[in-house]
DNA sequence: AGTAACTGTTACTTCAAGTCACATACCGTC
DNA sequence: GACGGTATGTGACTTGAAGTAACAGTTACT
């Protein structure tokens, strides 16, 4: 009889049996790596990861070409964790300020829960240098933020040329403050969050104000529909801040 | 006769002969390392540095305990280069906006000239982790900025409690945008500088505005006298941005 | 039974960091 | 002029982690 898979699909079922299994296995190792990070310290020896997963190095190397690949996977995991907390906050309804505060709060909550992962990804060991997947995680976040900012600017009828640099800027702002806070913890989390929120809020409203728009803390902004991934940024010019050096309306004395 | 040093100072002159020589020698190696960075790539093998200096490893190791120490020295050098361009810009006279622009411009000019050094210091290899001189350079810059911001806030009669987180935030803002720009160079330098300046300017004026002070692009701020090193930040609370909402919604506990 | 895909192991190579043992040069002291 | 303290330098080593090679067992489809 031929209930045999081969007869039905035309391929040897011994091949397909394992499809998708790789992904599971990789996840296992990522979990193991996370456990090593939690217990261990700042570095992440491959041997320890393998041991934590209950096997030896060569097995690990069957699923990750090298250490950079593992760290990459960790980065992706980290980004997922972060974005899954960040996006609901950013996309929540409510006034803009509350959303910024929620997003910043979520960010600090995440790094508070996963300090080791954060530190690992912050300064990549293993990712030696330039080309190979340079910081796909931060890039992913910045890209997402680019879309959000770009969207917001468009809604106010402003050029979105600044979206990309500003997204990277804000990402770095939060990131650096986060690193500093983790290192020192010289103030409560709610307090840092409040300070960071104030800074971003000021920056945001200030940019709008340059475009002639005044936004109050309670004013709503239509929720962003985040597009699939960041468009490379639209067009527009940097605001001509300095009335002496160019056009643009009545100096910031609003 | 005894023109001998020992007779005069009480110590063997064979000891003092070398005082201060170490510093010179270390400088030599730092130069060599810079040359390696320029020609080579992203990594910095000790052997290459030694070779570049015309000697072998053990000699290098007589002046630097380990690689981290060398990188530290490079970081210090980098900070010096950066601060020597940054501080005149920040402390120049002229309106606040112009000074911010000059400072941001100086920053980008420096990283444009020393991209490899910048990249090395951005993600420290060798500095394994926690304790040993964690990023003395960025810390130094942030500390200096803390002083500047703190000073500025005081001049406007505002609490300086936010100076430290904001300093780290702004440092990170510029840093991240710089990294992104170096990687991509998708816009001209003057353009990024303008965008970053706009963001910082907005943040700055916004913070002042929360304190009831309106600052225009042309308005001067008394030049900062920068104290020797950053005071640990003063006192004050985060601005209560949201008159309606009391405590924090997002993120959970502090 | 034969075999394609996995499972896993021990033992190796490689490479850079860092150390050891040893040899030489300068120059002030005696 | 011999002595010796501080430097100069080298080649050969050790160590540790990344990554590889060769080999052996298991499962389930053909």
Describe the structure.
2 copies of one chain form a homodimer. By secondary structure, the first copy, chain A, is mainly alpha-helical. Chain A has 2 domains: 18-64, Arc Repressor Mutant, subunit A, CATH 1.10.10; 79-125 and 135-237, Tetracycline Repressor, domain 2. In chain A, 62% of the residues lie in helices and 0% in strands. The radius of gyration of chain A is 23 Å and the shape is elongated. The first copy, chain A, starts with a helix and ends in a 44-residue tail after the last helix. Residues 1-9, 126-133, 227-234 and 244-254 of chain A have low confidence and may be disordered. The interface between A and B is large, with 81 and 75 residues.
How do you describe this structure in short?
By secondary structure, the first copy, chain A, is mainly α. The first copy, chain A, has eleven helices and no strands.
How many structural domains does the protein architecture of chain A include? 2
Work out the number of β strands of chain A: 0
Count of alpha/pi helices of chain A: 11
Largest interface: A-B, 81 and 75 residues
Q: What oligomeric arrangement do these chains adopt?
A: homodimer
Structural class by helix and strand composition of chain A: mainly alpha
Shape of chain A: elongated
Helix content of chain A: 55-70%
Tell me the radius of gyration of chain A.
23 Å
Strand content of chain A: under 5%
Low-confidence stretches of chain A: 1-9, 126-133, 227-234, 244-254
Largest sheet of chain A: none
In the CATH hierarchy, the architecture of the largest domain in chain A is: Orthogonal Bundle
Q: Please name the CATH topology of the largest domain in chain A.
A: Tetracycline Repressor, domain 2
């Amino acid at each position: 009889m031929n209930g045999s898979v081969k007869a039905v699909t035309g391929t040897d079922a011994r091949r397909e049996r394992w499809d998708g299994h790789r992904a599971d296995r990789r996840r296992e190792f990522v979990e193991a790596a996370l456990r090593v990070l939690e217990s261990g310290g700042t570095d992440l020896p491959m041997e320890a990861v393998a041991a934590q997963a209950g096997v030896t190095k060569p097995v690990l190397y069957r699923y990750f070409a090298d250490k950079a690949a593992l760290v990459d996977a960790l980065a992706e995991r980290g980004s997922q964790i972060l974005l899954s907390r960040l996006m609901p906050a950013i996309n929540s309804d409510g006034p803009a300020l509350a959303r910024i505060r929620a997003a910043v709060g979520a960010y600090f909550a995440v790094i508070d829960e996963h300090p080791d992962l954060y530190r690992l990804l912050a300064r990549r060991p293993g990712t030696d240098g330039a080309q190979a997947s340079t910081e796909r995680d931060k890039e992913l976040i910045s890209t997402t933020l680019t879309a959000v900012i770009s969207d917001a600017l468009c809604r106010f009828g402003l050029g979105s040329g600044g979206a990309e640099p500003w997204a990277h800027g804000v990402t770095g702002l939060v990131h650096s403050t986060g690193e500093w806070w983790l290192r020192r913890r010289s103030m409560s989390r709610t307090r840092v969050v409040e300070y960071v929120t104030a800074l971003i809020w000021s920056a945001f409203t200030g940019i709008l104000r340059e475009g002639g728009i005044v936004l109050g803390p309670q004013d709503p902004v239509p929720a962003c529909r985040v597009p699939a991934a960041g468009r490379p940024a639209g067009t527009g010019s940097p605001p001509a801040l300095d009335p002496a050096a160019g056009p643009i309306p009545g100096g910031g004395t609003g």
